[in-house]
Fold:
Amino acid sequence: MNNRKLLAFIPLALFLLLGLFLWRGLSIDPTELPSELADKKRPIPAFELPSLTEPSRLLTPDDLKGEVALLNVWATWCPTCKEEHGFLNRLAQDENVTIYGINYKDEPGKAREWLRRYLNPYQKVVLDQDGSLGLDMGVYGAPETYVLDPEGRVRYRHVGAVDAEVWKTLKQVMAQVEQESRS
Amino acid sequence: MRALLMWLMLLVPLSAQAAIDAYEFSDEQKEERFQQLTNELRCPKCQNQNIADSDAPLAADLRREVHRMLEAGEPNESIIDFMVTRYGDFVLYRPRVNETTWLLWYGPFVLLGIGILVVVLISRNRRQNSASTSEATPPAAPGRYQASDSLSTEEAERLNKLLQRDSDQ
Structure:
């Protein structure tokens, strides 16, 4: 008889378990893309690639160290990059944010023309013509924006355009990283 | 007409070939492993396709990398590691067995075990129940009461009479 009473609770237990799974499912965003670099605070993978703006100069991960900075992956074939470019200019000019760029799978001539026409918010631009650096970083597409700490480790990654809303988050992350590196 | 049909037939395999990149393999085993790996790796850009199916440029890059590493003689594990360090566990359509995936890999077997246990318990209960009811004495005739622990002989007779009277009316 006692056994039977316990059996009666099985449907309730199943219901609660299912409810728990479904509830958890509601809070998962399937469009969110994981970033191995940001999740594990990994440094930017090793590379030696020419600079877009000074083609005779080779850039390495050391060139991206020194301060808390944004690293923006962009290309002229990417319409969303054009959309966010004005906002990046504003960040560089008005907010004094250090922004580095990775020109991803692009034609260098077109990219230089783009920077001349729409202004250049980047302190340095890495020319990643065959996308090998992008592949090593786990880039899904352009645009993507990373927050780097002074040691050149990746602390945050945003997929998609940077706008005022996204900047709020990025700014918060940058301030936090800044504080950490000072202490 | 027949010539035309022949020409059309010739076109069929050509159009099917067009969607596949032309990779050359030094041996057949590598080609097989290439098929297997590209079928099990998820395209990070278009999430419901593997990199073998996807036309996204990123998937093409990843196929190229898989081919390059295979030809360089790397084992499957290091190719999968290469993808996971860049894109995370997320790219594996066949997740690895570790603490976070134990539930995923072994959960179904646990559920199956619970199911079997419930079936066994229920059937055993049922067998016991039917055994105990067959031991009990069935009533002599429906609607007729006999003397038992709660009824004396006189009471049983009286009850039967009363019931008889009710059913006569």
